[in-house]
Design goal:
alpha/beta, 7-stranded mixed beta sheet, 5-stranded mixed beta sheet, about 35% helix
């Protein structure tokens, strides 16, 4: 599969949105070149703010602009948002309510999520953000799997009022969706049909899930693969149908297994149609530094591989007897 850069697609889409919507403003925190948002600033300098290394201010200024009627995109690395600014995200962005409008129109878009950050190490490998952000009322959480999904979801966020959090990967990722694929907030996409088990993935692990499904198919096991890109709101209907029709679910994500997408799936399925759910992700630990070429080895150390996804699918099927 060919691959693309999520950050470049994000920057390109912001420029596109800026042309069609004069209310779009973009803010950064000294990482605007890395996040590829500087292109927006070059074209629309009057709607672009770089606050410097001041992430709490980044969120607060974005909230102020949203309170004045703008659609604010605020971006930096995942470890800094929500890592340094959860108070401002909760109280300045998600909490304000005006009539039927809950929260402010601020889109928090980050890169460098998960272990695949590389050499910056455990202090910068954000593994808790999905858990933090999905627990905040009025916040919606999106984890795109490829560059095309980033563009589509950026447009979807701009079209829908209210707070969002979207997490991108640092490195180039394989394309898993066709160019014309449609995305909706609260949806999920079935990439491969299957009857014997379900693999629900998000972010960079979606391509791993497809690889695992191919390996299982060689053994005669039919695995359904779902891109659960909308962690909140979660597509509970699609997951319930998968539980009923395949009997077990494996989740995979580049995040702590506590509180992430896998937890969201387990919570939903346990209430709607309980089946075995096994979670692939970081097992309640921090990451560690590695060179870019060693990122696959770091993911393997933490069990985030197609091989381990397939192994967990076999284990889930054994639970069924």
């Amino acid at each position: 599969m060919s691959g693309g850069d999520m950050r470049s697609e994000y920057g390109r889409t912001l420029v596109e949105l800026g042309e069609s919507n004069a209310g779009v403003v973009v803010l950064g925190a000294d990482t605007t070149d890395s996040l590829k948002t500087a292109a927006f600033g070059k074209k629309y300098p009057g709607r672009f703010v770089n606050v410097g290394i001041a992430e709490a201010n980044l969120v607060s200024v974005g909230a102020g602009m949203a309170a004045a009627g703008k659609t604010a995109f605020v971006s930096t690395y995942a470890i800094f948002l929500p890592g340094r600014a959860v108070d401002q995200i909760r109280n300045a962005v998600a909490y304000p309510t005006r009539g039927e409008r809950r929260g402010l129109d601020v889109k928090i878009v980050v890169s460098h999520g998960g272990l695949s950050v590389g050499a910056d190490g455990g202090s910068h490998q954000q593994l808790e953000d999905i858990a933090i952000m999905r627990a905040i009322p009025n916040m919606r959480v999106l984890i795109p799997a490829d560059a095309g999904a980033v563009g589509a979801l950026t447009r979807a966020m701009a079209a829908e009022y209210g707070p969002f959090y979207m997490r991108m990967a640092r490195s180039r990722v394989p394309d898993v969706h066709v160019p014309a694929q449609e995305f909706s907030v609260g949806g999920a996409i079935t990439l491969r049909e299957g009857a014997d088990c379900t693999i629900a993935a998000c972010g960079i692990t979606v391509s791993m899930a497809l690889e695992a499904a191919s390996a299982l198919a060689a053994e005669g096991v039919s695995a359904r693969v779902i891109d659960a890109f909308s962690v909140k709101p979660l597509d509970e209907a699609t997951l319930e149908a998968a539980a009923r029709e395949t009997g077990c679910i494996v989740t995979c994500e580049e995040h702590n297994v506590m509180g992430g997408m896998g937890s969201a799936v387990a919570e939903s399925v346990s209430e709607r149609y309980p089946v075995p759910v096994r979670r692939v992700g970081v097992r309640d630990s921090f990451g560690e530094s590695c060179r870019d070429a060693e990122i696959p080895a770091l993911l393997e150390k933490h069990g985030i591989t197609a091989v381990n996804i397939a192994a967990e699918a076999r284990a889930a099927r054994r639970q069924l007897g």
